[in-house]
Amino acid sequence: MPSAPYQEINPPQRILLGPGPSNVHPRVQQAMMAPVLGHMDPYFYTVMEDTMSLLRYLFRTKNALTFPISATGSAGMEAGLCNFLEPGDVAVIANNGFFADRMINIASRCGAEIIRLDAEWGRIIEPEAIEAALKSQKKVKLLALVHAETSTGVLQPLTEAAQLAKQHEALFLVDAVTSLGGHEVAVDDWSIDICYSCSQKCIGCPPGLSPITVNQKAMETLKKRSHSVSSYYLDLSLLSKYWIRDGSRAYHHTAPASMFYALHEALVLIADEGLEARIQRHAEHGAALQAGLEAMGLVLHAQPGHRLSTLTTVCIPEGIDDARIRQRLLSDYSMEIGGGLGTLKGKVWRIGLMGYSSSEQNVLLVLSALEKLLADEGYKTETGAGIKAAVQSLRK
Ligand SMILES: Cc1ncc(COP(=O)(O)O)c(C=O)c1O
Q: Which among 68, 99, 114, 168 is placed 20 to 30 Å from 321, CA to CA?
């Protein structure tokens, strides 16, 4: 029997400018308070149908199988890989960041033979490297790229890669965890076969769901598998029997109703704003933040021309204490930014402007807070230079 006097939960209000989760719109928060329904309730089916149709708008696809997996982004990644790869299959996978590395890890657990597309962390994978890898083996089953690499701040171009995958009859899988809802992701126009994301970043919902879309071509390949999918929970053929309405729906697992309400509301907010306007908002705020950081004399980590607007990686100046700055942002301003991951630990900060957190107010707040805290640490910069550059960028 626990004996401590446990308290009512009362987390602080934070400004979430890290790699995710981002802040949640009050309407999304409110939606989670709606009555919980059973996963076979007729009203719940209408929520599911609307969610699928709103997700098709977001992914820019007509794919019938477009739905949220009941788990975080990593489950989307795992579903995308474990359904389509079996022992002995060959997969060509990016190797230029923390999440690309996670894809390699999962694909190797599926027993696939992996051809790594190496590039420095902070640089894109060039189409020439993709072509060479696809040509190097007899039959590549799947090409997998991270569209928005959250560890490095790089936006990977996809259209040439998609063409190459098509030419070589490989399935094309894209991780859009940090891009969907903040950058353009055009699944059908770009010939992406499998694409997944998460709820907690540019969609502006709490963590817990992983929207995924899979086209018919990819679903057909499932019928040719020689082993059943090792994961029951993420088996797309089983999941599709609950999500695709063809007379009846079969129970697969108990749907997390409150999370589905939240996602539904977040997607309605996106539709109200309009996808193009939303992407433009992310672009303007990302550009203003980056202009401000550079005007403060800071160096951006990601390859110029291929920077995310949703997540900016900035190099930590010599002699500045990474942890102390992030701790003071939290204690003095109740503001979260991210530290570096993997090989970039201690080398960069990751500043996210995603979903509801992508606002003019937050750009100006994080720049002024950083200027003050860096000055306290002895970093020399012209007072107000960051804000001035950001304001100029926003006026454009
Ligand atoms: C690009 C990318 N892929 C996959 C993931 C894993 O998502 P989650 O942490 O929601 O499981 C993340 C998480 O930040 C990510 O940034």
A: 99
Instruction: Give CA separation, 288 vs 167, 260, 310, 357, in Å.
Output: 39, 33, 12, 14
pLDDT at 137 over 90: no
Q: How far apart are CA 133 and CA 161, in angstroms?
A: 11
Give the domain extent around 114: 26-271
Q: What is the mean pLDDT of the chain?
A: 97
CB of 158 sitting under 6 A from ligand 1: no
Q: What is the pLDDT of residue 72?
A: 98
Q: Is residue 2 part of a domain?
A: no
d(CA 99, ligand 1 centre) in Å: 7
Helix (H) / strand (E) element for 98: namely helix 98-109
Sheet strands (E) in the chain: 15-16, 65-69, 90-95, 113-118, 142-146, 148-149, 154-155, 171-175, 194-196, 210-214, 311-315, 335-336, 338-339, 348-352
Instruction: Pick the last residue of a domain from 218, 250, 271.
Output: 271
0.85 exceeded by pTM: yes
Please report, rounded to a whole number, the percentage of residues in the chain having pLDDT higher than 70: 100
136 versus 21: the higher-pLDDT residue is 21
Q: Please indicate whether residue 313, judged by its CB atom, sits closer than 6 Å to ligand 1.
A: no
